[in-house]
Specification:
The chain is an all-alpha fold. Helix content is about 60%, strand content about 0%. The protein has a domain at about 5-50. The protein is built from 2 helices and no strands. The mean pLDDT is about 85.
């Protein structure tokens, strides 16, 4: 005679395995590798520093440097 198998547990085990395989496929398809995420973060920080360094400081009383003629 063969081994006794609990079909409910076997079914749940098979479902978990199928969901795990689907999750793995989705991670491979949609995921971004950590080095790529880090490179994008570093590039965004560099761009922000570059833009902040190029910003003009109008708080020193140089408010006449505006495009609005009524502000003069």
């Amino acid at each position: 005679m063969g081994d006794v198998i609990n079909l409910r547990l076997a079914s749940k085990r098979a479902a978990r395995a199928a969901e795990g395989q689907a999750a793995e496929r989705n991670r491979a398809r949609h995921g971004i590798a950590k080095p790529e995420r880090e490179a994008a973060r570093r590039e965004a920080e560099r761009t922000e520093r570059l833009l902040d360094g190029a910003r003009r400081d109008l708080s020193a009383g140089n408010n006449h440097e505006t495009d609005d003629p009524s502000a003069r």
